[in-house]
Write a structure and sequence with these properties.
This protein has 308 residues and is α/β, with parallel strands linked by helices. The protein has 12 helices and 10 strands. Helix 1 runs antiparallel to helix 10, helix 1 runs parallel beside helix 11 and helix 9 packs parallel to helix 12.
Amino acid sequence: MTMTQAQPSTDSFIDADTVIPVILDTDIGDDIDDTWALAMALGRPELALRLIVTGFGDTSARTRLVAKMLERMDRMDVPIGTGVATGSAPIHQMRWAGEYEMTRYPGVVHRDGVGAMIDVIHAEPGPVVVLSIGPMTNLKAALERDPGIARKARVVAMAGSVRTGYGPGSAAEPEYNVFQDVAAARAVFAAPWPITLAPLDSCMPVALSGNDYKRVENAASERARVVIENYDLWSRRGEFGPEASSVLFDCVAAYLCWEESLCVMEDMRLVIDDAGCTVETPEGRPVRCAMNWKDLPAFKRLLIESLL
């Protein structure tokens, strides 16, 4: 495969008065980091969420979860779209979603989330960022319906494992968002839009603990309260300490939507192999990757401020 599209090369993609339109494509409800990333994006003045599309697994349950979150945070101005369902297993945040009924939700909900994604991309006068923080099933479906969206969008994704994996010092390995739908990830890589990745290489060190975590836990803002309530009722909460978050993978991708200055970025050529590994090779497509940190403490401060 030979591709020559230009990748962003500056530390920031916006001027002081510019707001970036964003579509969030998320499998929210399983790993809690999607919830942190949603709240972070809603708290950033640089970003304007035009649409949230639920993806992978039981997308109707995920839509119900998002609706309750947006109502609690008084952000019902953001439309929701229900994406492609791939299963019906219970999501890990069902205790917080409870018996919430979509009939009470006053905001806009699109039954065809993929179609809504296409419409938003074409409606914007300039490029749209598609923030992908789950398996890329919805993006593949959107490309199949309208390949032209790749000319009007930029993809920023939490995806891949380039040189390190999940364990400390481990080698690269298949990363969840890629190996859950390898065909979809390959379709996204084959399209001619710029791609920026937050792979495991930069995501694994991102977690809050001690005073950093307590600032969020004790915050009065509704964004922070919704995050902590979901985290405390999350089915995997017991795996982490009482004053610590889990790894907040998706928050790195949210940050890369508007800026890169805190990360060590590398322009690489990657392919996705049959196992779902993101492999560096001269024959790969150009991808801009956050591979490490210049200032991780500054990123954590930015994340906390976004929630507060």
